[in-house]
């Protein structure tokens, strides 16, 4: 890439294992500094530090905000976050019953 003022990333880390995702995400974070980036992602780890997160359902924006704001709303974003990070968060906080798959 030359040095685009706008960068569009569509599921840039979706096919990566956890370690590779972390390395690629670190590189992406450096790449998007001081520019506009549109990041399409299902893995929330990709967008946790975004300035503005839009949640789309059926092609419509249903929620908008920063990570912490969206968690406080208790809507779809929080639901998805709990699915993706809930088991890890519960384990870090001393347990809770984590259902087995």
TrEMBL record:
InterPro entries of this UniProt entry?
P-loop_NTPase (IPR027417), Type_1_exporter (IPR039421)
* Biological processes annotated in GO: oligopeptide export from mitochondrion
What Gene Ontology terms describe what this protein does at the molecular function level? ABC-type oligopeptide transporter activity
Gene Ontology cellular component terms for the protein in this record:
mitochondrial inner membrane
Q: Which Gene3D superfamilies match?
A: P-loop containing nucleotide triphosphate hydrolases
Protein name, UniProt field: Protein containing ABC transporter-like domain
Q: Name its species.
A: sediment metagenome
């Amino acid at each position: 890439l030359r040095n685009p003022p706008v960068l569009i990333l569509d599921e840039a880390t979706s096919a990566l294992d956890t370690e590779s995702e972390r390395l690629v995400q670190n590189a992406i974070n450096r790449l998007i500094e001081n520019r506009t980036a549109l990041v399409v992602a299902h893995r929330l780890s990709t967008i946790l530090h975004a300035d503005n997160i839009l949640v789309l359902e059926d092609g419509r924006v249903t929620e908008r905000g920063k990570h912490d704001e969206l968690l406080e709303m208790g809507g779809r974003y929080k639901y998805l976050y709990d699915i993706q990070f809930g088991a890890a968060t519960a384990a870090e906080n001393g347990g809770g019953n984590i259902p087995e798959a």
